[in-house]
């Protein structure tokens, strides 16, 4: 089969086509309503409400991502996925009720429950690819799902922002809920997909053990350790920037509340541009990776400044673009320097660390909004983040840095790539 034909060949398999379409709706539904939730949270609780929204959206992922892969492979996968879609549709209805009833606590709890369902959803869906496709199409099928998943993170919020120009936030959340119901219908046509049950306690222990192993792998290479620290600090700053989206849009860019979602269009476009630039030069040295991390942090001062729309929008574009550059280059280096049998665990640990940073940043943003002026808070935040990274950069050995000769503790060292 020709290479160009093989890319779309999995979609000619009816059951995989149903899985892919359901994944498209489910993934885009996850992020479509993000601008609407941002606006509703700000209307109900100001910056504190937005901060709590993103804290409750992220914290469930920290607990469930390490065990989601194992739990997603237990029981009837199809029935589990359908149930999770129905649950998320019901939670979308609860979000609408909380918005109409001005119930911020109910809103953030519904968001937390929805993100928990999402963390358990994706692993089970990916496990179905080798079940529904012949071996020669599994790689292409996984790529098709990955394209949808990765694009939804940037495209869906921007699409939601554009839709908010013509519909209300509650209507957008209703559309979000409908995507989950259609996804559930498509998945119900896959037929039973049973798998072997194992003990949940053993599953949880295995997931956290793999997460710790991933962190150890991040510490095998000095540059990767610095990348992880800088990316974590960048995630903290990004969490704060998200909390301040509405004030930045109001006071610096002069957008009305119903157009605040357009900030996602700016960020999404800059992130796509940064990723494309990184793909043109996939290999970068240690110095380049470290420098781009510092630019990413320092430009956040201008994002939080009140220097006018041109400066703030330009800084926001540079912030999002350098973040994408840093992530692509950092993960490329991670893939080439990590022992082959631990790449997936190292990736998982790095992503978990970034989620933690975003949760911490959202919490700090919620606190800072009520205690400090916006400009002062951004200056303090960036100075502390840069100082922490400088300490790691200038030290002879990064915090907890480990040599490959004595990892893992008490066991033979992993084989390294030649």
Account of the 3D structure:
It is built from 17 helices and no strands. Helix 2 packs antiparallel against helix 8, helix 3 packs parallel to helix 8 and helix 7 packs antiparallel against helix 12.
CATH superfamily placement of the largest domain: MFS general substrate transporter like domains
Mean pLDDT: 78
Tally of helical segments: 17
The low-confidence parts are 1-5, 196-202, 403-418
**Number of strand elements:** 0
CATH class of the largest domain: Mainly Alpha
Distance between the termini: 33 Å
Rg, Cα atoms, Å: 22 Å
CATH architectural arrangement of the largest domain: Up-down Bundle
Described by the principal axes of the CA atoms, the overall outline is globular
| Category by helix and strand content | mainly alpha
Question: Strand portion, in percent?
Answer: under 5%
Number of domains: 2
How are the SSEs ordered, and which strands pair?
Layout: H1 3-8, H2 14-32, H3 34-71, H4 77-100, H5 104-127, H6 129-132, H7 135-163, H8 169-187, H9 200-218, H10 222-243, H11 245-253, H12 262-280, H13 286-298, H14 300-303, H15 309-337, H16 343-371, H17 374-394
Helix pairs in contact: 2-7, 2-8, 3-5, 3-8, 3-9, 3-10, 3-16, 4-5, 4-8, 7-12, 9-16, 10-13, 10-15, 10-16, 10-17, 12-15, 13-15, 13-17
Describe, in short, the structure shown.
The protein is mainly alpha-helical and 418 residues long.
Descriptive key words:
mainly alpha; Growth Hormone, Chain: A; disordered N terminus
